[in-house]
Amino acid sequence: MTVPHVLLDRLGPVCAVVGAQWGDEGKGKIIDALAPHFDVLARPCGGANAGHTVVVDGQKHVFHLLPAGCLHPEKNIVLGSGMVVHLATLLEEVRRVEALGIPIRERLALSTAAHIVLDCDRAIDAALEERRTQTTGEGIGTTRRGIGPAYARKAAREGLRCEALLWAENRLHGAVAGIYADARERYNVDSDPALDLQNLREARDFLAPHLVQPGSLLEMLTSGKRRILIEGAQGSLLDIDHGTYPFVTSSATTVAGALQGLGLPPRMLCSCIGVAKAYCTRVGCGPFPTEAAPIAAARLRERGGEYGATTGRPRRCGWLSLQDLQYAAGINGVTCWAITKLDVLDGEATIPVWSTDGSRTVHDELPGWTAAAGARTWEALPSQAQAFLRFIEERTHVPVCFIGSGSAREHLICRF
Ligand code: IMP
What we know:
Layout: H1 5-11, E1 14-19, H2 27-34, E2 40-46, E3 52-56, E4 59-63, E5 76-85, H3 87-98, E6 108-111, E7 115-116, H4 119-136, H5 147-155, H6 169-187, H7 194-207, E8 211-212, H8 214-222, E9 228-235, H9 255-262, E10 271-277, E11 280-282, H10 294-304, E12 316-318, E13 320-321, H11 322-332, E14 336-340, E15 350-357, E16 360-367, H12 383-396, E17 400-404, E18 412-414
Parallel strand pairs: 1-9, 1-10, 2-5, 2-9, 5-6, 5-7, 6-8, 10-14, 13-15, 14-17
Antiparallel strand pairs: 3-4, 11-12, 15-16, 17-18
Bound molecules: inosinic acid.
Inosinic acid binds near residues 142, 143, 250, 283 and 284.
Protein backbone atom coordinates (compact mmCIF):
# COMPACT_ATOMS: atom_id res chain seq x y z
CA MET A 1 0.00 0.00 0.00
CA THR A 2 1.55 3.28 -1.07
CA VAL A 3 0.37 6.34 0.77
CA PRO A 4 -0.16 9.19 -1.73
CA HIS A 5 2.23 12.14 -1.57
CA VAL A 6 -0.55 14.65 -0.98
CA LEU A 7 -1.45 12.82 2.21
CA LEU A 8 2.20 12.43 3.30
CA ASP A 9 2.71 16.17 2.76
CA ARG A 10 -0.28 16.76 4.99
CA LEU A 11 1.20 14.54 7.73
CA GLY A 12 4.56 16.29 7.60
CA PRO A 13 7.92 14.95 8.77
CA VAL A 14 6.97 14.19 12.41
CA CYS A 15 3.73 12.27 12.82
CA ALA A 16 2.28 10.56 15.89
CA VAL A 17 -0.17 7.68 15.70
CA VAL A 18 -2.29 7.29 18.84
CA GLY A 19 -5.21 5.13 19.86
CA ALA A 20 -8.48 7.02 20.35
CA GLN A 21 -10.32 4.31 22.31
CA TRP A 22 -9.20 1.62 24.81
CA GLY A 23 -6.31 0.25 22.74
CA ASP A 24 -6.44 -2.47 20.08
CA GLU A 25 -7.67 0.05 17.50
CA GLY A 26 -5.49 -1.37 14.72
CA LYS A 27 -2.57 1.05 15.06
CA GLY A 28 -0.21 -1.65 13.74
CA LYS A 29 -1.84 -1.62 10.33
CA ILE A 30 -1.61 2.16 9.96
CA ILE A 31 2.00 2.20 11.19
CA ASP A 32 2.90 -0.56 8.76
CA ALA A 33 1.45 1.44 5.85
CA LEU A 34 3.23 4.66 6.85
CA ALA A 35 6.58 3.18 7.88
CA PRO A 36 8.14 3.06 4.37
CA HIS A 37 7.72 6.84 4.16
CA PHE A 38 9.60 7.66 7.38
CA ASP A 39 13.23 7.31 8.50
CA VAL A 40 12.73 6.62 12.21
CA LEU A 41 10.12 4.41 13.87
CA ALA A 42 9.79 5.23 17.55
CA ARG A 43 7.94 3.63 20.48
CA PRO A 44 7.75 6.22 23.27
CA CYS A 45 5.93 4.55 26.21
CA GLY A 46 4.35 1.42 27.53
CA GLY A 47 5.74 -2.06 27.42
CA ALA A 48 4.86 -5.60 26.47
CA ASN A 49 1.24 -4.97 27.48
CA ALA A 50 0.85 -3.73 23.89
CA GLY A 51 0.24 -6.13 21.03
CA HIS A 52 0.49 -4.45 17.63
CA THR A 53 -0.53 -6.71 14.78
CA VAL A 54 0.56 -6.58 11.14
CA VAL A 55 -0.60 -9.07 8.49
CA VAL A 56 1.82 -9.59 5.57
CA ASP A 57 1.11 -12.15 2.82
CA GLY A 58 -1.49 -13.78 5.04
CA GLN A 59 0.99 -14.14 7.92
CA LYS A 60 0.23 -12.45 11.22
CA HIS A 61 3.05 -10.70 13.11
CA VAL A 62 2.44 -9.43 16.63
CA PHE A 63 4.83 -6.91 18.18
CA HIS A 64 4.88 -6.13 21.89
CA LEU A 65 7.96 -3.94 22.18
CA LEU A 66 9.39 -3.35 18.71
CA PRO A 67 7.57 -0.77 16.58
CA ALA A 68 5.07 -2.48 14.28
CA GLY A 69 6.80 -0.94 11.25
CA CYS A 70 10.05 -2.81 11.94
CA LEU A 71 9.43 -5.31 9.13
CA HIS A 72 10.41 -2.50 6.76
CA PRO A 73 14.20 -2.78 6.62
CA GLU A 74 16.56 0.16 6.83
CA LYS A 75 14.40 2.24 9.15
CA ASN A 76 15.96 3.34 12.40
CA ILE A 77 14.17 1.89 15.41
CA VAL A 78 13.97 3.84 18.66
CA LEU A 79 12.69 2.49 21.98
CA GLY A 80 12.23 5.61 24.06
CA SER A 81 12.90 6.61 27.66
CA GLY A 82 9.21 6.36 28.59
CA MET A 83 9.11 2.63 27.94
CA VAL A 84 9.24 -0.23 30.42
CA VAL A 85 11.06 -3.14 28.81
CA HIS A 86 10.92 -6.83 29.65
CA LEU A 87 14.29 -7.71 28.17
CA ALA A 88 13.66 -11.41 27.51
CA THR A 89 10.55 -10.44 25.50
CA LEU A 90 12.55 -7.88 23.52
CA LEU A 91 15.28 -10.42 22.75
CA GLU A 92 12.71 -12.97 21.65
CA GLU A 93 11.07 -10.41 19.38
CA VAL A 94 14.36 -9.27 17.83
CA ARG A 95 15.40 -12.87 17.19
CA ARG A 96 12.01 -13.70 15.66
CA VAL A 97 12.26 -10.85 13.12
CA GLU A 98 15.94 -11.50 12.42
CA ALA A 99 15.06 -15.15 11.70
CA LEU A 100 12.94 -13.80 8.82
CA GLY A 101 16.11 -12.32 7.35
CA ILE A 102 15.23 -8.78 8.48
CA PRO A 103 18.04 -7.30 10.57
CA ILE A 104 16.97 -5.37 13.67
CA ARG A 105 19.99 -4.85 15.94
CA GLU A 106 22.03 -2.80 13.50
CA ARG A 107 19.27 -0.17 13.40
CA LEU A 108 18.10 -0.36 17.02
CA ALA A 109 18.55 2.39 19.63
CA LEU A 110 17.30 1.61 23.14
CA SER A 111 17.27 4.49 25.62
CA THR A 112 19.43 3.93 28.70
CA ALA A 113 16.63 5.70 30.63
CA ALA A 114 13.92 3.17 29.71
CA HIS A 115 13.02 1.06 32.74
CA ILE A 116 13.45 -2.69 33.05
CA VAL A 117 10.51 -4.96 33.86
CA LEU A 118 11.66 -7.94 35.88
CA ASP A 119 9.90 -11.28 36.16
CA CYS A 120 9.00 -10.48 39.77
CA ASP A 121 7.03 -7.45 38.45
CA ARG A 122 4.74 -9.89 36.68
CA ALA A 123 4.27 -11.80 39.92
CA ILE A 124 3.57 -8.53 41.80
CA ASP A 125 1.08 -7.49 39.09
CA ALA A 126 -0.80 -10.77 39.57
CA ALA A 127 -0.66 -10.46 43.40
CA LEU A 128 -2.05 -6.90 43.25
CA GLU A 129 -4.86 -8.00 40.95
CA GLU A 130 -5.75 -10.75 43.38
CA ARG A 131 -5.68 -8.31 46.30
CA ARG A 132 -7.96 -5.85 44.48
CA THR A 133 -10.38 -8.60 43.53
CA GLN A 134 -10.55 -9.77 47.13
CA THR A 135 -11.06 -6.30 48.59
CA THR A 136 -13.31 -4.64 45.98
CA GLY A 137 -14.69 -7.69 44.18
CA GLU A 138 -13.12 -6.54 40.92
CA GLY A 139 -9.56 -6.15 39.59
CA ILE A 140 -8.39 -3.79 36.85
CA GLY A 141 -7.97 -6.70 34.48
CA THR A 142 -4.32 -5.89 33.74
CA THR A 143 -2.32 -7.82 31.18
CA ARG A 144 -0.19 -9.12 34.10
CA ARG A 145 2.94 -8.09 32.22
CA GLY A 146 4.35 -6.23 35.25
CA ILE A 147 3.63 -2.79 33.79
CA GLY A 148 2.10 -1.20 36.91
CA PRO A 149 4.82 -2.42 39.32
CA ALA A 150 7.62 -1.26 36.96
CA TYR A 151 6.11 2.22 36.56
CA ALA A 152 5.42 2.39 40.32
CA ARG A 153 9.09 1.70 41.04
CA LYS A 154 10.05 4.32 38.45
CA ALA A 155 7.84 6.95 40.09
CA ALA A 156 9.22 6.01 43.51
CA ARG A 157 12.71 6.61 42.05
CA GLU A 158 13.73 3.07 42.87
CA GLY A 159 13.65 1.72 39.33
CA LEU A 160 16.18 -0.24 37.38
CA ARG A 161 16.89 1.42 34.06
CA CYS A 162 18.41 -0.09 30.91
CA GLU A 163 21.68 1.70 31.78
CA ALA A 164 22.07 -1.05 34.42
CA LEU A 165 23.08 -3.38 31.58
CA LEU A 166 26.38 -1.48 31.52
CA TRP A 167 27.04 -1.92 35.24
CA ALA A 168 29.54 -4.29 36.83
CA GLU A 169 28.10 -7.70 37.70
CA ASN A 170 28.05 -7.27 41.50
CA ARG A 171 26.26 -3.89 41.30
CA LEU A 172 23.57 -5.34 39.01
CA HIS A 173 23.26 -8.41 41.21
CA GLY A 174 22.77 -6.21 44.30
CA ALA A 175 20.11 -4.06 42.62
CA VAL A 176 18.08 -7.06 41.45
CA ALA A 177 18.40 -8.77 44.84
CA GLY A 178 17.10 -5.56 46.49
CA ILE A 179 14.03 -5.48 44.23
CA TYR A 180 13.29 -9.14 44.93
CA ALA A 181 13.66 -8.60 48.68
CA ASP A 182 11.21 -5.71 48.42
CA ALA A 183 8.76 -7.86 46.43
CA ARG A 184 8.89 -10.42 49.20
CA GLU A 185 8.45 -7.88 51.98
CA ARG A 186 5.78 -5.66 50.44
CA TYR A 187 3.80 -8.06 48.29
CA ASN A 188 4.61 -11.48 49.70
CA VAL A 189 5.94 -12.49 46.30
CA ASP A 190 8.62 -15.08 46.83
CA SER A 191 10.38 -15.83 43.57
CA ASP A 192 13.94 -16.58 42.56
CA PRO A 193 15.98 -13.81 40.90
CA ALA A 194 18.23 -16.35 39.13
CA LEU A 195 16.27 -16.36 35.87
CA ASP A 196 16.09 -12.56 35.80
CA LEU A 197 19.85 -12.32 36.38
CA GLN A 198 20.47 -14.78 33.59
CA ASN A 199 18.14 -12.76 31.29
CA LEU A 200 19.95 -9.55 32.19
CA ARG A 201 23.35 -11.06 31.38
CA GLU A 202 22.07 -12.31 28.05
CA ALA A 203 20.48 -8.94 27.31
CA ARG A 204 23.74 -7.17 28.15
CA ASP A 205 25.65 -9.19 25.56
CA PHE A 206 22.90 -8.73 23.00
CA LEU A 207 21.87 -5.10 23.57
CA ALA A 208 24.79 -3.19 25.12
CA PRO A 209 26.02 -1.82 21.76
CA HIS A 210 22.53 -0.47 21.07
CA LEU A 211 22.04 1.45 24.31
CA VAL A 212 21.85 5.20 23.75
CA GLN A 213 21.83 8.05 26.28
CA PRO A 214 18.75 10.34 26.10
CA GLY A 215 20.92 13.27 24.93
CA SER A 216 22.29 11.29 21.99
CA LEU A 217 18.80 10.01 21.25
CA LEU A 218 17.54 13.58 21.05
CA GLU A 219 20.32 14.46 18.66
CA MET A 220 19.61 11.41 16.58
CA LEU A 221 15.93 12.35 16.35
CA THR A 222 16.33 16.05 15.72
CA SER A 223 19.36 16.29 13.45
CA GLY A 224 19.39 15.78 9.71
CA LYS A 225 15.70 16.45 9.03
CA ARG A 226 14.70 12.88 9.70
CA ARG A 227 11.11 11.86 9.19
CA ILE A 228 9.86 10.40 12.46
CA LEU A 229 6.86 8.13 12.92
CA ILE A 230 5.80 7.94 16.56
CA GLU A 231 3.92 4.79 17.49
CA GLY A 232 1.70 5.36 20.51
CA ALA A 233 0.67 2.33 22.53
CA GLN A 234 -2.68 1.51 24.18
CA GLY A 235 -5.43 4.11 23.75
CA SER A 236 -6.32 7.56 25.00
CA LEU A 237 -9.00 6.24 27.36
CA LEU A 238 -6.36 4.11 29.10
CA ASP A 239 -4.18 7.15 29.85
CA ILE A 240 -3.09 7.33 33.50
CA ASP A 241 -4.22 10.99 33.77
CA HIS A 242 -6.96 11.39 31.18
CA GLY A 243 -8.43 7.89 30.96
CA THR A 244 -11.09 6.02 32.89
CA TYR A 245 -9.02 5.86 36.12
CA PRO A 246 -8.41 3.53 37.90
CA PHE A 247 -9.19 1.24 34.96
CA VAL A 248 -6.23 2.50 32.97
CA THR A 249 -2.65 1.53 32.26
CA SER A 250 0.27 3.12 34.12
CA SER A 251 1.68 5.33 31.37
CA ALA A 252 0.58 8.44 29.49
CA THR A 253 -0.90 7.08 26.28
CA THR A 254 -1.82 10.39 24.68
CA VAL A 255 0.34 12.37 22.28
CA ALA A 256 1.77 14.45 25.15
CA GLY A 257 3.00 11.22 26.76
CA ALA A 258 4.53 10.16 23.46
CA LEU A 259 6.52 13.39 23.17
CA GLN A 260 7.57 13.11 26.81
CA GLY A 261 8.56 9.47 26.37
CA LEU A 262 10.85 10.30 23.47
CA GLY A 263 12.04 13.63 24.86
CA LEU A 264 10.89 15.44 21.73
CA PRO A 265 9.96 19.13 21.82
CA PRO A 266 6.19 19.52 21.11
CA ARG A 267 6.81 22.09 18.38
CA MET A 268 8.37 19.34 16.22
CA LEU A 269 5.11 17.46 15.93
CA CYS A 270 3.36 18.09 12.60
CA SER A 271 0.37 15.78 12.76
CA CYS A 272 -1.45 13.31 14.94
CA ILE A 273 -3.41 10.41 13.50
CA GLY A 274 -6.12 9.19 15.85
CA VAL A 275 -6.85 5.51 15.24
CA ALA A 276 -10.32 4.21 16.09
CA LYS A 277 -12.24 1.11 15.19
CA ALA A 278 -15.55 1.56 13.34
CA TYR A 279 -17.00 0.07 16.54
CA CYS A 280 -15.36 -0.23 19.95
CA THR A 281 -13.72 -2.81 22.18
CA ARG A 282 -12.24 -2.94 25.64
CA VAL A 283 -10.23 -5.58 27.50
CA GLY A 284 -10.16 -5.66 31.24
CA CYS A 285 -12.60 -4.05 33.64
CA GLY A 286 -14.02 -0.54 33.78
CA PRO A 287 -16.86 1.49 32.28
CA PHE A 288 -17.93 0.87 28.69
CA PRO A 289 -21.17 2.80 28.13
CA THR A 290 -21.65 1.66 24.51
CA GLU A 291 -21.01 -2.03 25.22
CA ALA A 292 -23.30 -4.16 23.03
CA ALA A 293 -25.83 -6.68 24.27
CA PRO A 294 -24.36 -10.23 24.45
CA ILE A 295 -25.58 -11.51 21.06
CA ALA A 296 -24.41 -8.44 19.11
CA ALA A 297 -21.14 -8.38 21.11
CA ALA A 298 -20.45 -12.03 20.26
CA ARG A 299 -21.13 -11.28 16.58
CA LEU A 300 -18.64 -8.39 16.55
CA ARG A 301 -16.09 -10.48 18.49
CA GLU A 302 -16.18 -13.37 16.06
CA ARG A 303 -16.17 -11.24 12.92
CA GLY A 304 -13.50 -8.92 14.23
CA GLY A 305 -11.33 -11.64 15.81
CA GLU A 306 -11.58 -9.67 19.04
CA TYR A 307 -9.25 -11.66 21.26
CA GLY A 308 -6.29 -9.97 22.96
CA ALA A 309 -3.05 -10.03 20.93
CA THR A 310 -1.07 -10.14 24.20
CA THR A 311 -3.23 -12.23 26.51
CA GLY A 312 -5.72 -13.98 24.21
CA ARG A 313 -8.58 -12.71 26.40
CA PRO A 314 -11.94 -12.19 24.65
CA ARG A 315 -12.47 -8.45 24.24
CA ARG A 316 -15.67 -6.75 25.34
CA CYS A 317 -17.36 -5.41 22.19
CA GLY A 318 -19.68 -2.48 21.56
CA TRP A 319 -20.54 0.40 19.31
CA LEU A 320 -18.77 3.57 18.29
CA SER A 321 -18.87 6.47 20.71
CA LEU A 322 -18.23 9.76 18.96
CA GLN A 323 -18.21 11.29 22.41
CA ASP A 324 -15.00 9.34 23.05
CA LEU A 325 -13.61 10.33 19.67
CA GLN A 326 -14.42 13.99 20.32
CA TYR A 327 -12.58 13.70 23.64
CA ALA A 328 -9.60 11.91 22.08
CA ALA A 329 -9.46 14.52 19.30
CA GLY A 330 -9.42 17.24 21.94
CA ILE A 331 -6.69 15.90 24.22
CA ASN A 332 -4.43 14.71 21.40
CA GLY A 333 -5.03 17.43 18.83
CA VAL A 334 -5.94 14.76 16.31
CA THR A 335 -5.46 16.08 12.77
CA CYS A 336 -7.00 13.11 10.96
CA TRP A 337 -8.70 9.82 11.73
CA ALA A 338 -7.81 6.32 10.69
CA ILE A 339 -11.03 4.32 11.02
CA THR A 340 -10.20 0.62 11.03
CA LYS A 341 -12.11 -2.64 10.65
CA LEU A 342 -15.02 -1.10 8.75
CA ASP A 343 -15.57 -4.52 7.13
CA VAL A 344 -16.48 -6.04 10.52
CA LEU A 345 -19.75 -4.07 10.39
CA ASP A 346 -20.70 -5.65 7.02
CA GLY A 347 -24.14 -7.22 7.37
CA GLU A 348 -25.34 -5.15 10.33
CA ALA A 349 -28.86 -3.90 9.54
CA THR A 350 -28.24 -0.65 11.40
CA ILE A 351 -25.18 0.84 13.05
CA PRO A 352 -25.71 2.40 16.49
CA VAL A 353 -23.55 5.49 17.17
CA TRP A 354 -23.42 7.72 20.25
CA SER A 355 -22.35 11.34 20.22
CA THR A 356 -22.92 14.56 22.14
CA ASP A 357 -24.88 17.62 21.28
CA GLY A 358 -23.90 20.19 23.89
CA SER A 359 -24.32 18.34 27.18
CA ARG A 360 -26.88 15.90 25.72
CA THR A 361 -25.95 12.33 24.69
CA VAL A 362 -27.45 11.54 21.30
CA HIS A 363 -28.05 8.03 20.01
CA ASP A 364 -28.30 7.56 16.24
CA GLU A 365 -29.01 4.44 14.20
CA LEU A 366 -27.30 4.73 10.83
CA PRO A 367 -28.25 2.47 7.90
CA GLY A 368 -25.96 -0.56 7.56
CA TRP A 369 -24.28 -2.02 4.45
CA THR A 370 -23.22 -5.42 3.21
CA ALA A 371 -19.90 -5.19 1.39
CA ALA A 372 -17.14 -2.89 2.63
CA ALA A 373 -14.72 -5.82 3.01
CA GLY A 374 -11.71 -5.63 0.73
CA ALA A 375 -12.52 -2.16 -0.66
CA ARG A 376 -9.37 -0.38 -1.83
CA THR A 377 -10.85 2.95 -2.83
CA TRP A 378 -13.39 5.36 -1.39
CA GLU A 379 -15.55 4.87 -4.50
CA ALA A 380 -15.63 1.10 -3.91
CA LEU A 381 -17.25 1.56 -0.50
CA PRO A 382 -21.03 1.16 -0.20
CA SER A 383 -22.75 4.56 -0.03
CA GLN A 384 -24.02 3.80 3.51
CA ALA A 385 -20.45 3.15 4.67
CA GLN A 386 -19.39 6.46 3.12
CA ALA A 387 -22.27 8.15 4.95
CA PHE A 388 -21.14 6.57 8.24
CA LEU A 389 -17.60 7.93 7.76
CA ARG A 390 -18.93 11.38 6.80
CA PHE A 391 -21.04 11.31 9.97
CA ILE A 392 -17.86 10.77 12.03
CA GLU A 393 -16.26 13.74 10.27
CA GLU A 394 -19.27 16.02 10.81
CA ARG A 395 -19.57 15.25 14.51
CA THR A 396 -15.85 15.41 15.34
CA HIS A 397 -14.74 18.08 12.84
CA VAL A 398 -11.75 15.90 11.94
CA PRO A 399 -11.30 14.35 8.47
CA VAL A 400 -11.13 10.58 7.96
CA CYS A 401 -7.96 10.01 5.91
CA PHE A 402 -7.39 6.27 6.37
CA ILE A 403 -10.00 3.51 6.28
CA GLY A 404 -9.28 -0.15 7.06
CA SER A 405 -11.41 -2.60 5.05
CA GLY A 406 -9.69 -5.88 5.99
CA SER A 407 -6.67 -7.31 7.78
CA ALA A 408 -4.31 -7.53 4.77
CA ARG A 409 -1.84 -4.75 3.98
CA GLU A 410 -3.65 -3.81 0.78
CA HIS A 411 -7.01 -3.42 2.51
CA LEU A 412 -6.48 0.19 3.39
CA ILE A 413 -8.06 3.22 1.74
CA CYS A 414 -6.22 6.55 1.77
CA ARG A 415 -8.40 9.61 1.38
CA PHE A 416 -7.30 13.20 1.25
P1 IMP B 1 -1.72 -2.99 32.28
O1 IMP B 1 -1.26 -1.98 31.28
O2 IMP B 1 -1.26 -4.39 31.95
O3 IMP B 1 -1.42 -2.58 33.68
O4 IMP B 1 -3.33 -3.07 32.19
C1 IMP B 1 -4.18 -2.02 32.58
C2 IMP B 1 -5.41 -1.94 31.69
O5 IMP B 1 -5.01 -1.54 30.39
C3 IMP B 1 -6.12 -3.27 31.52
O6 IMP B 1 -7.51 -3.02 31.37
C4 IMP B 1 -5.58 -3.81 30.21
O7 IMP B 1 -6.44 -4.71 29.59
C5 IMP B 1 -5.42 -2.52 29.43
N1 IMP B 1 -4.38 -2.58 28.41
C6 IMP B 1 -3.05 -2.45 28.57
N2 IMP B 1 -2.41 -2.52 27.39
C7 IMP B 1 -3.35 -2.67 26.47
C8 IMP B 1 -3.32 -2.77 25.04
O8 IMP B 1 -2.27 -2.72 24.39
N3 IMP B 1 -4.53 -2.92 24.43
C9 IMP B 1 -5.68 -2.93 25.10
N4 IMP B 1 -5.77 -2.82 26.43
C10 IMP B 1 -4.62 -2.71 27.10
